[in-house]
Protein backbone atom coordinates (compact mmCIF):
# COMPACT_ATOMS: atom_id res chain seq x y z
CA UNK A 1 0.00 0.00 0.00
CA UNK A 2 1.02 3.61 -0.51
CA UNK A 3 1.27 5.71 2.67
CA UNK A 4 0.61 9.43 2.29
CA UNK A 5 0.23 12.34 4.69
CA UNK A 6 -2.16 15.25 4.61
CA UNK A 7 -3.13 18.17 6.83
CA UNK A 8 -6.74 19.33 7.11
CA UNK A 9 -8.56 22.16 8.86
CA UNK A 10 -9.60 21.15 12.38
CA UNK A 11 -13.30 21.20 11.58
CA UNK A 12 -12.55 18.42 9.08
CA UNK A 13 -12.60 15.42 11.41
CA UNK A 14 -14.17 12.89 9.04
CA UNK A 15 -12.52 10.67 6.46
CA UNK A 16 -9.70 12.68 4.82
CA UNK A 17 -9.67 10.56 1.64
CA UNK A 18 -11.23 13.14 -0.66
CA UNK A 19 -8.84 16.01 0.18
CA UNK A 20 -5.92 13.57 0.00
CA UNK A 21 -6.88 12.49 -3.50
CA UNK A 22 -7.20 16.10 -4.60
CA UNK A 23 -3.84 17.08 -3.12
CA UNK A 24 -1.93 14.23 -4.73
CA UNK A 25 -3.96 14.13 -7.98
CA UNK A 26 -5.00 10.53 -7.49
CA UNK A 27 -8.00 9.38 -9.50
CA UNK A 28 -10.79 8.00 -7.26
CA UNK A 29 -11.29 5.06 -9.61
CA UNK A 30 -7.69 3.95 -8.95
CA UNK A 31 -8.35 3.54 -5.21
CA UNK A 32 -9.08 -0.12 -4.42
CA UNK A 33 -9.18 0.41 -0.65
CA UNK A 34 -7.91 2.79 1.98
CA UNK A 35 -7.48 3.01 5.71
CA UNK A 36 -6.65 5.78 8.17
CA UNK A 37 -3.41 4.99 9.99
CA UNK A 38 -3.04 7.94 12.36
CA UNK A 39 -4.42 11.36 13.22
CA UNK A 40 -2.96 13.96 15.56
CA UNK A 41 -3.80 17.56 16.39
CA UNK A 42 -1.19 20.23 15.66
CA UNK A 43 -2.17 23.20 17.82
CA UNK A 44 1.21 24.89 18.15
CA UNK A 45 1.18 28.65 18.55
CA UNK A 46 2.03 30.84 15.57
CA UNK A 47 0.36 28.68 12.92
CA UNK A 48 -3.20 27.65 12.03
CA UNK A 49 -4.39 24.61 13.98
CA UNK A 50 -4.74 21.52 11.82
CA UNK A 51 -5.18 17.78 11.90
CA UNK A 52 -2.27 15.71 10.60
CA UNK A 53 -3.30 12.45 8.96
CA UNK A 54 -1.58 9.35 7.63
CA UNK A 55 -3.48 7.21 5.11
CA UNK A 56 -2.68 3.94 3.42
CA UNK A 57 -4.03 3.57 -0.11
CA UNK A 58 -4.30 0.37 -2.14
CA UNK A 59 -4.06 1.58 -5.74
CA UNK A 60 -4.51 -0.16 -9.03
CA UNK A 61 -1.43 1.65 -10.39
CA UNK A 62 0.69 1.75 -7.25
CA UNK A 63 4.10 1.71 -8.96
CA UNK A 64 3.20 4.61 -11.23
CA UNK A 65 1.88 6.72 -8.36
CA UNK A 66 4.84 5.84 -6.13
CA UNK A 67 7.26 6.98 -8.84
CA UNK A 68 5.34 10.20 -9.44
CA UNK A 69 4.90 11.14 -5.78
CA UNK A 70 8.41 10.07 -4.75
CA UNK A 71 9.21 11.92 -1.49
CA UNK A 72 5.52 12.50 -0.72
CA UNK A 73 4.65 8.83 -0.30
CA UNK A 74 6.19 5.48 0.52
CA UNK A 75 5.22 1.89 -0.05
CA UNK A 76 4.37 0.01 3.15
CA UNK A 77 3.35 -3.55 3.94
CA UNK A 78 0.45 -3.62 6.40
CA UNK A 79 1.12 -5.69 9.51
CA UNK A 80 -0.84 -8.94 9.69
CA UNK A 81 -0.55 -10.88 12.94
CA UNK A 82 0.50 -14.51 12.64
CA UNK A 83 0.33 -16.71 15.71
CA UNK A 84 3.24 -19.16 16.06
CA UNK A 85 2.93 -22.70 14.77
CA UNK A 86 1.81 -25.23 17.35
CA UNK A 87 4.44 -27.36 19.04
CA UNK A 88 4.53 -31.14 19.20
CA UNK A 89 4.30 -31.78 22.95
CA UNK A 90 1.01 -33.19 24.19
CA UNK A 91 -1.03 -31.41 26.85
CA UNK A 92 -2.78 -33.83 29.18
CA UNK A 93 -4.92 -31.01 30.56
CA UNK A 94 -6.36 -27.71 29.43
CA UNK A 95 -4.32 -24.54 30.10
CA UNK A 96 -5.49 -22.45 33.04
CA UNK A 97 -5.54 -18.64 33.03
CA UNK A 98 -5.85 -16.91 36.41
CA UNK A 99 -7.26 -13.40 36.15
CA UNK A 100 -9.62 -11.93 33.57
CA UNK A 101 -8.27 -8.43 33.11
CA UNK A 102 -6.64 -7.31 29.84
CA UNK A 103 -3.71 -9.77 30.11
CA UNK A 104 -5.86 -12.77 30.99
CA UNK A 105 -8.50 -11.89 28.40
CA UNK A 106 -5.99 -11.56 25.58
CA UNK A 107 -4.20 -14.79 26.55
CA UNK A 108 -7.44 -16.74 26.84
CA UNK A 109 -8.79 -15.40 23.53
CA UNK A 110 -5.67 -16.39 21.60
CA UNK A 111 -5.53 -19.84 23.22
CA UNK A 112 -9.22 -20.39 22.49
CA UNK A 113 -8.83 -19.36 18.85
CA UNK A 114 -5.97 -21.80 18.41
CA UNK A 115 -7.92 -24.71 19.90
CA UNK A 116 -6.50 -24.94 23.44
CA UNK A 117 -9.87 -24.51 25.25
CA UNK A 118 -8.49 -22.60 28.26
CA UNK A 119 -10.08 -22.56 31.71
CA UNK A 120 -10.17 -19.03 33.16
CA UNK A 121 -10.40 -18.47 36.93
CA UNK A 122 -11.57 -15.00 37.98
CA UNK A 123 -12.02 -14.27 41.68
CA UNK A 124 -14.60 -11.55 41.04
CA UNK A 125 -17.96 -11.68 39.27
CA UNK A 126 -18.97 -11.20 35.66
CA UNK A 127 -19.14 -7.58 34.61
CA UNK A 128 -22.96 -7.45 34.72
CA UNK A 129 -23.00 -8.30 38.43
CA UNK A 130 -19.80 -6.39 39.11
CA UNK A 131 -21.35 -3.21 37.75
CA UNK A 132 -24.11 -3.50 40.36
CA UNK A 133 -21.75 -4.13 43.30
CA UNK A 134 -19.51 -1.22 42.29
CA UNK A 135 -22.55 1.08 42.00
CA UNK A 136 -23.71 -0.04 45.44
CA UNK A 137 -20.28 0.76 46.87
CA UNK A 138 -20.18 4.19 45.26
CA UNK A 139 -23.72 5.07 46.32
CA UNK A 140 -24.12 3.31 49.69
CA UNK A 141 -20.52 2.54 50.73
CA UNK A 142 -21.23 -1.19 50.87
CA UNK A 143 -17.89 -2.77 49.92
CA UNK A 144 -17.65 -6.34 48.66
CA UNK A 145 -13.98 -7.42 49.05
CA UNK A 146 -14.34 -9.85 46.14
CA UNK A 147 -16.37 -7.67 43.77
CA UNK A 148 -15.18 -4.09 43.45
CA UNK A 149 -13.20 -1.72 41.25
CA UNK A 150 -10.15 -3.99 41.55
CA UNK A 151 -11.64 -7.50 41.26
CA UNK A 152 -13.90 -8.91 38.58
CA UNK A 153 -14.24 -9.29 34.84
CA UNK A 154 -12.22 -6.66 32.99
CA UNK A 155 -9.79 -6.05 35.85
CA UNK A 156 -9.11 -2.67 37.43
CA UNK A 157 -9.23 -0.99 34.01
CA UNK A 158 -12.93 -1.76 33.54
CA UNK A 159 -13.79 1.19 35.78
CA UNK A 160 -11.31 3.71 34.46
CA UNK A 161 -10.90 5.78 31.33
CA UNK A 162 -9.94 2.88 29.09
CA UNK A 163 -6.79 4.55 27.77
CA UNK A 164 -5.11 2.74 24.90
CA UNK A 165 -1.99 4.88 24.55
CA UNK A 166 1.18 2.89 25.17
CA UNK A 167 4.87 3.69 25.06
CA UNK A 168 5.95 0.16 24.17
CA UNK A 169 7.10 -0.62 20.64
CA UNK A 170 5.57 -3.93 19.68
CA UNK A 171 4.12 -5.19 16.40
CA UNK A 172 1.13 -6.56 18.30
CA UNK A 173 -0.23 -3.10 19.23
CA UNK A 174 -2.43 -2.90 16.08
CA UNK A 175 -3.68 -6.42 16.84
CA UNK A 176 -4.97 -5.33 20.26
CA UNK A 177 -6.73 -2.30 18.82
CA UNK A 178 -8.29 -4.32 16.01
CA UNK A 179 -9.53 -6.96 18.48
CA UNK A 180 -11.19 -4.23 20.53
CA UNK A 181 -12.88 -2.89 17.40
CA UNK A 182 -14.17 -6.40 16.65
CA UNK A 183 -15.60 -6.45 20.17
CA UNK A 184 -17.48 -3.20 19.59
CA UNK A 185 -15.01 -0.37 20.19
CA UNK A 186 -15.24 2.71 17.99
CA UNK A 187 -13.03 2.15 14.90
CA UNK A 188 -11.30 5.48 15.50
CA UNK A 189 -9.22 3.93 18.31
CA UNK A 190 -7.01 2.43 15.60
CA UNK A 191 -5.84 5.84 14.36
CA UNK A 192 -6.44 8.43 17.08
CA UNK A 193 -3.31 9.86 18.69
CA UNK A 194 -4.51 9.20 22.26
CA UNK A 195 -7.34 6.66 21.91
CA UNK A 196 -9.60 5.73 24.79
CA UNK A 197 -12.69 3.60 25.28
CA UNK A 198 -14.53 4.98 28.32
CA UNK A 199 -15.99 2.95 31.16
CA UNK A 200 -19.43 2.69 29.55
CA UNK A 201 -17.97 1.18 26.37
CA UNK A 202 -15.58 -1.16 28.18
CA UNK A 203 -18.38 -3.07 29.88
CA UNK A 204 -19.98 -4.25 26.63
CA UNK A 205 -16.58 -4.94 25.06
CA UNK A 206 -15.64 -7.21 27.98
CA UNK A 207 -18.86 -9.17 27.60
CA UNK A 208 -18.28 -9.75 23.88
CA UNK A 209 -14.72 -10.95 24.43
CA UNK A 210 -15.87 -13.39 27.10
CA UNK A 211 -18.58 -14.77 24.83
CA UNK A 212 -16.07 -15.17 22.00
CA UNK A 213 -13.80 -17.22 24.27
CA UNK A 214 -16.70 -19.40 25.37
CA UNK A 215 -17.92 -19.92 21.80
CA UNK A 216 -14.45 -21.28 20.93
CA UNK A 217 -14.46 -23.89 23.69
CA UNK A 218 -12.97 -21.82 26.50
CA UNK A 219 -14.51 -21.65 29.94
CA UNK A 220 -14.68 -18.63 32.27
CA UNK A 221 -15.35 -19.40 35.93
CA UNK A 222 -16.26 -16.35 37.97
CA UNK A 223 -15.97 -16.00 41.75
CA UNK A 224 -13.37 -18.76 41.75
CA UNK A 225 -10.05 -17.67 43.28
CA UNK A 226 -6.68 -19.36 42.97
CA UNK A 227 -5.80 -20.57 46.48
CA UNK A 228 -2.88 -22.94 46.02
CA UNK A 229 -0.50 -24.25 43.38
CA UNK A 230 0.55 -27.89 43.42
CA UNK A 231 3.90 -28.89 41.92
CA UNK A 232 5.73 -32.12 41.22
CA UNK A 233 9.42 -32.30 40.38
CA UNK A 234 9.70 -28.52 40.02
CA UNK A 235 6.83 -28.34 37.52
CA UNK A 236 3.21 -27.29 37.83
CA UNK A 237 0.83 -30.22 38.46
CA UNK A 238 -2.48 -28.66 39.56
CA UNK A 239 -4.19 -25.57 40.92
CA UNK A 240 -6.58 -25.55 43.88
CA UNK A 241 -9.39 -23.01 43.97
CA UNK A 242 -11.54 -21.27 46.57
CA UNK A 243 -14.41 -23.55 45.63
CA UNK A 244 -12.42 -26.52 46.88
CA UNK A 245 -11.70 -27.86 43.40
CA UNK A 246 -8.38 -29.29 42.24
CA UNK A 247 -7.74 -28.69 38.53
CA UNK A 248 -4.89 -30.73 37.01
CA UNK A 249 -2.81 -28.65 34.60
CA UNK A 250 0.69 -28.37 33.19
CA UNK A 251 0.39 -24.74 32.05
CA UNK A 252 -0.82 -21.72 34.00
CA UNK A 253 -0.87 -18.08 32.86
CA UNK A 254 -0.75 -16.12 36.10
CA UNK A 255 -2.44 -12.84 35.18
CA UNK A 256 -3.45 -11.65 38.64
CA UNK A 257 -3.94 -7.91 39.07
CA UNK A 258 -1.81 -5.53 41.11
CA UNK A 259 -4.30 -5.64 44.01
CA UNK A 260 -4.32 -9.42 44.59
CA UNK A 261 -2.43 -9.01 47.85
CA UNK A 262 -3.62 -12.24 49.42
CA UNK A 263 -2.52 -14.17 46.32
CA UNK A 264 0.93 -12.56 46.52
CA UNK A 265 1.23 -13.81 50.11
CA UNK A 266 0.09 -17.30 49.12
CA UNK A 267 2.57 -17.45 46.23
CA UNK A 268 5.38 -16.34 48.52
CA UNK A 269 4.56 -19.12 51.00
CA UNK A 270 4.56 -21.64 48.16
CA UNK A 271 8.03 -20.63 47.03
CA UNK A 272 7.18 -18.83 43.78
CA UNK A 273 10.16 -16.47 43.23
CA UNK A 274 9.29 -12.79 43.51
CA UNK A 275 11.08 -9.52 44.19
CA UNK A 276 10.04 -6.04 45.37
CA UNK A 277 9.81 -3.37 42.68
CA UNK A 278 9.26 0.39 42.62
CA UNK A 279 5.74 1.78 42.44
CA UNK A 280 4.24 5.23 43.05
CA UNK A 281 1.79 6.93 45.41
CA UNK A 282 0.18 10.33 45.51
CA UNK A 283 -3.11 12.13 45.01
CA UNK A 284 -5.80 12.85 42.45
CA UNK A 285 -5.86 16.47 41.29
CA UNK A 286 -9.03 18.02 39.88
CA UNK A 287 -9.43 21.11 37.72
CA UNK A 288 -12.27 22.51 35.71
CA UNK A 289 -12.10 20.89 32.29
CA UNK A 290 -12.72 24.32 30.79
CA UNK A 291 -9.45 25.52 32.35
CA UNK A 292 -7.50 22.60 30.85
CA UNK A 293 -9.12 23.22 27.47
CA UNK A 294 -8.29 26.92 27.54
CA UNK A 295 -4.66 26.26 28.43
CA UNK A 296 -4.06 23.43 25.95
CA UNK A 297 -6.02 24.98 23.08
CA UNK A 298 -5.00 28.58 23.80
CA UNK A 299 -3.80 29.15 20.22
CA UNK A 300 -7.26 28.26 18.83
CA UNK A 301 -9.79 31.09 19.32
CA UNK A 302 -12.83 28.80 19.09
CA UNK A 303 -12.09 25.35 20.46
CA UNK A 304 -15.57 24.50 21.73
CA UNK A 305 -15.98 21.68 19.21
CA UNK A 306 -12.65 19.99 20.03
CA UNK A 307 -12.45 16.98 22.36
CA UNK A 308 -11.73 17.49 26.06
CA UNK A 309 -8.04 18.32 26.33
CA UNK A 310 -5.45 16.22 28.18
CA UNK A 311 -2.07 16.84 29.76
CA UNK A 312 0.97 14.75 30.63
CA UNK A 313 3.44 15.96 33.22
CA UNK A 314 6.74 14.67 34.57
CA UNK A 315 9.51 15.97 36.78
CA UNK A 316 12.53 14.70 38.66
CA UNK A 317 12.71 15.87 42.27
CA UNK A 318 15.83 17.22 43.94
CA UNK A 319 16.50 13.81 45.50
CA UNK A 320 16.11 12.01 42.16
CA UNK A 321 12.57 10.70 42.54
CA UNK A 322 10.36 10.56 39.49
CA UNK A 323 7.11 12.50 39.85
CA UNK A 324 4.52 12.35 37.11
CA UNK A 325 0.88 12.57 36.11
CA UNK A 326 -0.83 9.23 35.70
CA UNK A 327 -4.17 8.12 34.22
CA UNK A 328 -5.33 11.60 33.23
CA UNK A 329 -9.12 11.59 32.77
CA UNK A 330 -10.53 14.51 30.74
CA UNK A 331 -14.15 15.24 31.59
CA UNK A 332 -13.91 12.56 34.25
CA UNK A 333 -14.56 11.66 37.86
CA UNK A 334 -12.50 10.68 40.89
CA UNK A 335 -13.83 7.30 42.00
CA UNK A 336 -13.63 5.19 45.14
CA UNK A 337 -11.50 2.12 44.38
CA UNK A 338 -10.85 0.34 47.66
CA UNK A 339 -10.78 -3.45 47.87
CA UNK A 340 -10.33 -3.65 51.64
CA UNK A 341 -12.52 -2.20 54.44
CA UNK A 342 -11.66 1.01 56.30
CA UNK A 343 -9.46 2.32 53.50
CA UNK A 344 -9.55 5.11 50.94
CA UNK A 345 -8.21 4.43 47.44
CA UNK A 346 -8.78 6.90 44.61
CA UNK A 347 -8.73 6.34 40.89
CA UNK A 348 -9.90 8.24 37.82
CA UNK A 349 -12.71 7.38 35.42
CA UNK A 350 -14.18 8.86 32.25
CA UNK A 351 -17.13 7.86 30.13
CA UNK A 352 -16.69 7.63 26.38
CA UNK A 353 -18.06 11.15 25.85
CA UNK A 354 -15.61 12.68 28.37
CA UNK A 355 -18.20 15.35 29.07
CA UNK A 356 -17.88 15.74 32.84
CA UNK A 357 -17.30 19.22 34.26
CA UNK A 358 -13.92 18.34 35.82
CA UNK A 359 -10.64 16.93 34.60
CA UNK A 360 -8.63 14.75 36.97
CA UNK A 361 -5.26 13.06 37.04
CA UNK A 362 -3.07 11.30 39.55
CA UNK A 363 0.10 13.12 40.57
CA UNK A 364 2.33 10.42 42.00
CA UNK A 365 5.81 10.08 43.45
CA UNK A 366 8.13 7.14 42.94
CA UNK A 367 8.48 4.79 45.92
CA UNK A 368 11.52 2.54 46.01
CA UNK A 369 11.65 -0.82 47.84
CA UNK A 370 14.03 0.61 50.46
CA UNK A 371 11.36 3.20 51.37
CA UNK A 372 9.01 0.44 52.49
CA UNK A 373 11.05 -1.54 55.01
CA UNK A 374 12.21 -5.14 55.12
CA UNK A 375 10.46 -8.12 53.61
CA UNK A 376 9.08 -9.18 50.28
CA UNK A 377 5.60 -7.84 51.09
CA UNK A 378 6.84 -4.54 52.54
CA UNK A 379 5.50 -2.59 49.54
CA UNK A 380 2.07 -4.18 49.98
CA UNK A 381 2.05 -3.24 53.67
CA UNK A 382 3.21 0.30 52.77
CA UNK A 383 0.19 0.70 50.48
CA UNK A 384 -2.19 -0.75 53.06
CA UNK A 385 -0.97 1.59 55.81
CA UNK A 386 -1.33 4.62 53.55
CA UNK A 387 -4.85 3.65 52.49
CA UNK A 388 -5.98 3.15 56.10
CA UNK A 389 -4.34 6.41 57.23
CA UNK A 390 -6.20 8.23 54.46
CA UNK A 391 -9.45 6.73 55.75
CA UNK A 392 -8.66 7.91 59.29
CA UNK A 393 -7.56 11.37 58.15
CA UNK A 394 -10.71 11.75 56.05
CA UNK A 395 -12.97 10.43 58.85
CA UNK A 396 -14.29 7.78 56.49
CA UNK A 397 -14.32 10.12 53.51
CA UNK A 398 -11.44 11.06 51.23
CA UNK A 399 -8.99 13.62 52.67
CA UNK A 400 -8.67 16.63 50.36
CA UNK A 401 -6.98 20.01 50.18
CA UNK A 402 -6.74 22.87 47.71
CA UNK A 403 -3.42 22.68 45.88
CA UNK A 404 -2.63 26.32 46.73
CA UNK A 405 -3.20 25.63 50.42
CA UNK A 406 -1.08 22.46 50.34
CA UNK A 407 1.79 24.50 48.91
CA UNK A 408 1.22 27.39 51.32
CA UNK A 409 0.80 25.16 54.38
CA UNK A 410 -2.50 26.80 55.25
CA UNK A 411 -5.58 24.66 55.97
CA UNK A 412 -8.43 24.71 53.45
CA UNK A 413 -11.64 25.95 55.04
CA UNK A 414 -13.98 25.54 52.08
CA UNK A 415 -14.18 24.12 48.58
CA UNK A 416 -13.41 26.55 45.77
CA UNK A 417 -14.62 26.63 42.19
CA UNK A 418 -13.74 22.96 41.60
CA UNK A 419 -16.37 20.75 43.17
CA UNK A 420 -14.97 17.33 44.15
CA UNK A 421 -16.40 14.32 42.32
CA UNK A 422 -15.28 11.59 44.76
CA UNK A 423 -18.57 9.73 45.41
CA UNK A 424 -18.25 9.37 49.21
CA UNK A 425 -17.47 13.04 49.79
CA UNK A 426 -14.24 14.68 50.93
CA UNK A 427 -12.92 15.97 54.24
CA UNK A 428 -10.86 19.14 53.96
CA UNK A 429 -7.63 18.66 55.88
CA UNK A 430 -3.88 19.05 55.72
CA UNK A 431 -2.56 16.25 53.49
CA UNK A 432 1.07 16.50 54.63
CA UNK A 433 0.66 13.96 57.48
CA UNK A 434 -0.26 11.29 54.91
CA UNK A 435 3.16 11.23 53.30
CA UNK A 436 6.79 11.14 54.26
CA UNK A 437 8.85 14.32 54.09
CA UNK A 438 10.55 12.97 50.93
CA UNK A 439 7.24 12.38 49.15
CA UNK A 440 5.85 15.76 50.23
CA UNK A 441 9.00 17.52 49.06
CA UNK A 442 8.92 15.78 45.68
CA UNK A 443 5.22 16.55 45.18
CA UNK A 444 5.67 20.21 46.13
CA UNK A 445 8.57 20.57 43.69
CA UNK A 446 6.48 18.96 40.96
CA UNK A 447 3.52 21.28 41.54
CA UNK A 448 5.70 24.40 41.60
CA UNK A 449 7.47 23.28 38.43
CA UNK A 450 4.12 22.63 36.75
CA UNK A 451 2.86 26.10 37.69
CA UNK A 452 5.74 27.61 35.73
CA UNK A 453 4.98 25.69 32.54
CA UNK A 454 1.19 25.45 33.05
CA UNK A 455 0.15 28.77 34.67
CA UNK A 456 -2.92 28.46 36.87
CA UNK A 457 -2.45 24.75 37.58
CA UNK A 458 -2.04 25.26 41.33
CA UNK A 459 -4.73 27.97 41.69
CA UNK A 460 -8.32 28.52 40.67
CA UNK A 461 -9.69 26.22 43.36
CA UNK A 462 -7.79 23.18 42.00
CA UNK A 463 -8.22 20.33 44.45
CA UNK A 464 -6.06 17.37 45.48
CA UNK A 465 -7.68 14.26 46.96
CA UNK A 466 -5.91 11.36 48.67
CA UNK A 467 -4.84 8.77 48.25
CA UNK A 468 -3.65 7.16 44.97
CA UNK A 469 -1.79 3.90 45.66
CA UNK A 470 -2.69 1.37 42.95
CA UNK A 471 -0.51 2.76 40.19
CA UNK A 472 1.36 -0.51 39.68
CA UNK A 473 2.27 -3.70 41.47
CA UNK A 474 4.76 -3.44 44.36
CA UNK A 475 6.07 -6.89 43.40
CA UNK A 476 7.44 -8.67 40.35
CA UNK A 477 6.85 -12.40 39.94
CA UNK A 478 10.12 -13.51 38.40
CA UNK A 479 10.23 -15.25 35.04
CA UNK A 480 12.78 -16.31 32.45
CA UNK A 481 13.30 -13.53 29.92
CA UNK A 482 13.19 -15.94 26.99
CA UNK A 483 10.63 -18.60 27.91
CA UNK A 484 8.57 -16.27 30.15
CA UNK A 485 8.26 -19.14 32.65
CA UNK A 486 8.68 -18.95 36.39
CA UNK A 487 11.36 -21.08 38.05
CA UNK A 488 8.43 -23.43 38.61
CA UNK A 489 7.98 -24.90 35.14
CA UNK A 490 4.65 -24.34 33.42
CA UNK A 491 3.80 -21.11 35.25
CA UNK A 492 3.82 -17.93 33.15
CA UNK A 493 3.64 -14.76 35.31
CA UNK A 494 1.88 -12.19 33.20
CA UNK A 495 0.62 -8.64 33.01
CA UNK A 496 0.43 -5.72 35.38
CA UNK A 497 0.04 -7.66 38.62
CA UNK A 498 3.12 -9.73 37.84
CA UNK A 499 5.08 -6.53 37.22
CA UNK A 500 5.55 -6.76 33.44
CA UNK A 501 3.15 -4.15 32.02
CA UNK A 502 1.14 -1.06 32.76
CA UNK A 503 -2.17 -0.26 31.09
CA UNK A 504 -4.62 -2.07 28.85
CA UNK A 505 -2.55 -2.44 25.67
CA UNK A 506 0.78 -3.47 27.20
CA UNK A 507 -1.00 -5.91 29.53
CA UNK A 508 -2.90 -7.50 26.66
CA UNK A 509 0.32 -7.83 24.66
CA UNK A 510 2.02 -9.54 27.58
CA UNK A 511 -0.90 -11.95 27.76
CA UNK A 512 -0.50 -12.74 24.07
CA UNK A 513 3.25 -13.30 24.48
CA UNK A 514 2.65 -15.83 27.24
CA UNK A 515 -0.06 -17.61 25.24
CA UNK A 516 2.34 -17.76 22.28
CA UNK A 517 4.87 -19.61 24.44
CA UNK A 518 2.31 -22.31 25.24
CA UNK A 519 1.33 -22.58 21.57
CA UNK A 520 4.98 -22.98 20.48
CA UNK A 521 5.44 -25.90 22.84
CA UNK A 522 2.15 -27.82 22.79
CA UNK A 523 -0.44 -29.23 20.41
CA UNK A 524 -3.99 -27.85 20.64
CA UNK A 525 -6.27 -29.74 23.00
CA UNK A 526 -8.80 -30.40 20.24
CA UNK A 527 -6.31 -32.62 18.37
CA UNK A 528 -6.15 -35.35 21.00
Primary descriptors:
528 residues, alpha+beta, FAD/NAD(P)-binding domain, 3 domains, five-stranded parallel β-sheet, 27% helix
Can you offer a commentary on this structure?
It contains twelve helices and 23 strands. By secondary structure, it is α+β, with helices and mostly antiparallel strands. A seven-stranded mixed beta sheet has the order 14-15-18-13-21-19-20. The chain folds into three domains: 74 residues, Alpha-Beta Plaits; 232 residues, 3-Layer(bba) Sandwich (FAD/NAD(P)-binding domain); 191 residues, no CATH class. Strand 19, helix 10 and strand 20 form a beta-alpha-beta unit. The model has no long low-confidence stretch (mean pLDDT 95). Helix 3 runs parallel beside helix 6 and helix 3 packs parallel to helix 12.
- If you average the pLDDT, what whole number results? 95
Assigned CATH class of the largest domain:
Alpha Beta
Report strand order across the widest sheet. Answer: 14-15-18-13-21-19-20
User: What count of helical segments does DSSP give?
Assistant: 12
What is the beta-strand fraction?
Answer: 15-25%
Q: What is the 3D shape?
A: globular
Q: Return residue spans where pLDDT drops below 50 for at least 5 consecutive residues.
A: none
Termini Cα gap: 42 Å
Structural class, from secondary structure content?
Answer: alpha+beta
Number of strands: 23
CATH homology group of the largest domain: FAD/NAD(P)-binding domain
Query: Biggest sheet, in brief?
Result: 7 strands, mixed
CATH topology title of the largest domain? FAD/NAD(P)-binding domain
CATH architecture of the largest domain: 3-Layer(bba) Sandwich
Share in helix: 25-40%
Amino acid sequence: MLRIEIATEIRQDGDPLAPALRKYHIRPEDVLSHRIVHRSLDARAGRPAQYLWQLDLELSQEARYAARLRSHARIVTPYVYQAPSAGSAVLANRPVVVGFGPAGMAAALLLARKGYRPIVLERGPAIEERRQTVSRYWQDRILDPEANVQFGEGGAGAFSDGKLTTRIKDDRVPLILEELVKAGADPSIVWLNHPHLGTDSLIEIDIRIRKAIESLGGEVRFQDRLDRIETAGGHLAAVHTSRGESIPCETLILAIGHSARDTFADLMEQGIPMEPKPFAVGVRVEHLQSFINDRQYRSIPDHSFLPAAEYHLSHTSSDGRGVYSFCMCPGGYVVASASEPDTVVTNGMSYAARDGKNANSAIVVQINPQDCGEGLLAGVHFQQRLEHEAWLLGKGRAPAELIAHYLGRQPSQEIGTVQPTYPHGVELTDLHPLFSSEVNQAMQEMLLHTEQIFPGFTGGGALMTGVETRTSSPLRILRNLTTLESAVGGIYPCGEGAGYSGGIVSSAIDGIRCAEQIIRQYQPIEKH
